[in-house]
Amino acid sequence: VNPLLLLALGLCIVLGGILWLRLHPFLSLILGAFAVGGLTSIDNLEKAMTAKYHGESVRKAINEGVKNRIAEFKKKGEKFDAKTIRKEVRRNLEEKDKELKSTAQAKAEDYRKSNNTLKRITTAFGGTCAKIGILIAMACVIGRCMLASGAAERIVRGALSLVGERGAPVAFCGSAFLLGIPVFFDSLFLLAIPLVKATWLKVRKNYVLFVVALVAGGTMTHSLVPPTPGPLFVAEELG
C-alpha cells in the first residue's frame, strides 16, 4: 500500500473518529495506529527500519570518529577545526557505507520477524510515554487547575481590558498563545468561545476574525512551543 494513502487513511480515521463519531482522541489515535500498522506492507516496514538503523549507525560512527580524532590532536597539542575533522570522517565513512547498510538491513529483517503490529504499537506507545508522557501529563494538570480556578478566563479578560474592543483580535490571539502552553487546544477553544461571542455582541462585527485570531494563537503554541505534545515529540526525535 502506498505510504501516502496510509497517511491519508490514518488522518481520516483519527479526524473522523473525533469529529463524527465523537470518540475520545486517545481511542481515535489508537484505531488509526492499528489501521496504519496493520496495512503497512513488509517491504515498506523493512525500508523504514533499514533507513532508521542506517542513519543511527552513520551518526554513531561519525561521532566516534570525530571524538577519536579530536582526542589525537589534543594529545599531540595541535590545533584543530571540528568542522574539517567531521568532513574528513564523513568522507572516510563512505567506504564503509555498504557494510553499514547491510548491517542495517539485517537488523530491519530481524525487527520485522520479531515484532508484529500489536507489539510495534505498544512498544512505540510505551517509549513515547516514557520520554515525554510525564511532562505532558503535568502540563495537563496545570491547565486543568487554571480552568477550574478561573485563572485562564481572567487572563483572557485581562488581555481584552488592556487593549480594548478594537484590539480584541490581538487579545484573543495573545491569550490563546499563552494559555495554549498548559491547556490543550480543545479546552482552550471551549473556554474562550463564550468570551468571543460576548465581545461580538458588544461590537456586532468581526466575529470570524475573533475566532480566527483565537485559533491562530492556539495553533501557533501547539505547533511551536513545548510542552505541547507535537513540538515536544519533534524535539525528542531530533535529539
Automatic annotation (TrEMBL):
InterPro entries in the record: Glcn_transporter
GO molecular function: gluconate transmembrane transporter activity
Subcellular location as annotated: Cell membrane
Residue stretches spanning the membrane: 26-45, 121-149, 169-195, 207-225
Record's keyword annotation contains Membrane: yes
Record key words, sorted: Cell membrane, Membrane, Transmembrane, Transmembrane helix, Transport
GO CC, any one term: plasma membrane
Bilayer disposition of the protein: Multi-pass membrane protein
Main location: membrane
PANTHER family reported in the protein's UniProt record: GNT FAMILY GLUCONATE TRANSPORTER (PTHR30354), HIGH-AFFINITY GLUCONATE TRANSPORTER (PTHR30354:SF22)
Name recorded for this polypeptide: Gluconate transporter
Organism for this UniProt entry: marine metagenome
